[in-house]
Amino acid sequence: MLSLRQMTPGDIAEGMRLCAQAGWNQTEADWRRFLDLEPDGCFVGEVDGNVVATTTTRVFGPIAWIGMVLVDQAMRRRGIGTAMMEHALAHLTARGVATMRLDATPLGEPIYRRLGFVAEYELARWEGVSPGAGCDGRVRAVTAGQIERLADLDRRATGTDRQGLLRHLWEHGPQSMLALEGATRLAGYAAFRNGARAFQIGPIVARSDEAGRALADAALGHLAGQRVFVDIAQDHVGATRWAQERGLQVQRKLVRMFRGRPVQETHPWLWASSGPENG
């Protein structure tokens, strides 16, 4: 019989086992970030005392993100994934969340639709070995004093207050966040982080395609010779063209979905997602 409880740091090894089984890219550092930022919103499912499923939530005010919905291969098609989602949805409803969002794999999408989620748009995960790139001299490592301005730009782009997430990413990898200052305002920012299979580039938020290309190229410059993943909305012409020109290939597709109140985004500014965990 399935029993659900809050996740603890002691469960990270099981989370990593399920990630490896599914071929996902998350690391122990990612799991620790989920627990650091939302300790009451991360859950495991157990059968006979063994962890067989996980899910995480992250609340950004009235908006929440659901991720890491993993079920042991040997335990699939028994309603466990649905039960984990229903538990997460009940938790978020009790928190007064108005909008719940996630990035769905083909395996998970039918479950989410049955639970009332609606498709917003498709993303493509682009993959390849970074060819390196010339770095625009205006792109610099983010400083502590820029975080609030990054968060304000990110809020304008995503319709979501992700300052806590951005600050956590910067604190744990200040050289992995880049900013491009315009003449009078911040033109954009980019981040990248290590993964189990590849470096994940994103989020990238940019006011223009010129800024987006400069930031994305700067990330590739830092990661020359390394395998990279970048999640890009399929209808973002500028970012898609950049990925094609840099020799990246589409690995898989994801569907961004929501339940509740739609979020108003500035879509052209969303050059790359931060990954399925946080949108």
Main sheet?
13 strands, mixed
Portion of residues in helices? 25-40%
Number of strands: 13
Question: Termini, distance in Å?
Answer: 32 Å
Contiguous uncertain segments of 5+ residues: none
Strand content: 25-35%
How does the helix and strand content classify structurally? alpha+beta
Give the overall silhouette: globular
Would you mind describing this structure in some detail?
The structure is a single chain. With 279 residues, the chain is an alpha+beta fold. It contains 8 helices and 13 strands. It has helices spanning 12-22, 28-37, 80-94, 109-114, 147-158, 163-171, 209-222, 237-245; strands spanning 2-6, 42-47, 50-60, 63-71, 99-104, 118-129, 139-141, 177-181, 186-193, 199-206, 227-233, 249-260, 270-272. Strands 1, 2, 3, 4, 5, 6, 7, 8, 9, 10, 11, 12 and 13 form a 13-stranded mixed beta sheet that branches. The longest helix is centred in the first third of the chain and has 15 residues, at 80-94.
